[in-house]
Design goal:
The protein is α/β, with parallel strands linked by helices. It has helices at about 30, 40-55, 65-70, 75-80, 100-110, 120-135, 150-165, 170-180, 185-195, 200-210, and strands at about 20-25, 60-65, 90, 110-120, 135-145, 165-170. A 6-stranded parallel sheet has the order 3-2-1-4-5-6, with helices on both faces. The radius of gyration is 18 Å and the shape is globular. The protein starts with 18 loop residues before the first strand and ends in a 5-residue tail after the last helix. The mean pLDDT is about 95.
């Protein structure tokens, strides 16, 4: 039987409205012991994800653990992208065991969950495996997570992928939200986020625009 291709996106690709982003425990105390990724890179990637989600209107949950008593506030790079949004503070290491978070998950109603945060082997593995067990489709932003060692992070990613989670990167997340440079209403926002947080790719966008007036699309 022949197969006929069509110019349409695959169902496995994310769209801004089909998932809930959960950003977990991007806090000072967690970051102090994170060694699988440099702190500056982690903060940059988290900012890229937060700004992408805010810009595209992705339903986003921001959650902390013991914010006032131990772990400190969420990175300002994230909270600044969602001015006025309430942090859901927990006692549980597994976000999926917190009633306030789950109430919000159910209010939003998306079956796809995208996770990022600290630490990969505890606070990301917990909700990832729990959500998969309850029938959700889970994506993990691998370079917007971190753990106490590269070994801890890598084994946590292995465990989640083996359970069915799909790994992504921060820049991949941003570009998957845009997906077509002909979408002019979000073009400037997407390239602006890339120029600010997209590393060498962002530098390339800036250079092409400044030197040749070039642009994507």
């Amino acid at each position: 039987m022949s197969i006929k291709a069509t110019p349409t996106a695959g169902a496995k690709l994310l769209t801004p409205k089909d998932h809930t982003l959960v950003m977990i425990d991007f806090q000072s105390q967690m970051a102090f012991a994170t060694h699988s990724i440099e702190a500056i890179t982690l903060r940059n990637n988290a900012a890229l994800v937060a700004n992408a989600a805010a810009g595209f209107g992705v339903p986003t949950i921001l959650t902390t653990v013991a914010e006032k008593s131990f772990s400190g506030p969420m990175f300002s790079e994230i909270s600044d992208a969602f001015p006025g949004q309430k942090m859901l503070d927990r006692t549980s290491m597994n976000t999926w065991e917190d009633a306030a978070v789950i109430n919000r998950i159910n209010e939003i109603g998306n079956k796809r969950i995208v996770l990022s945060g600290l630490w990969t082997g505890v606070c990301i593995v917990g909700p990832a495996l729990s959500a998969i067990d309850q029938g959700f489709e889970v994506f993990v932003l691998a370079d917007a997570c971190g753990d106490v060692s590269a070994e801890a992070h890598n084994r946590a990613m292995d465990r989640m992928v083996q359970a069915g989670a799909q790994p992504m990167t921060s820049l991949q997340y941003l570009l998957e939200m845009q997906r077509d440079w002909a979408r002019t209403d979000t073009y400037e926002m997407t390239t602006g986020i890339a120029k600010k947080f997209g590393g060498a790719y962002g530098l390339g966008v800036t250079y092409a625009k400044a030197m040749f007036g070039a642009h994507e699309g």
